[in-house]
Give the backbone structure.
Amino acid sequence: MKAAIEKVGDVDTEKIIKALENMTLDTFVGKIPIRAYDHQAMMPTWYGIMDFSPVCPFPILQNSGVMGEESYHTVEQIKICA
């Protein structure tokens, strides 16, 4: 929000929404683009298998990975379902 407000120089809601469209934000998980079509923040998607480990008394994430924008429906897919 801070980046959008600074970009616009105002706190007008509609101006901020417009400023966020196609903006890339610096976040605690890295750079996150905002898709203009549906205002979706394209956050990474982490995946893995929860399983017990000999070193921990509780399940931990194993065989993990991360996916980017490819884990989201495309704008074309969204338009078909709308």
Strands lie at 24-27, 30-33, 45-53, 56-67. The first strand starts at residue 24 and ends at 27.
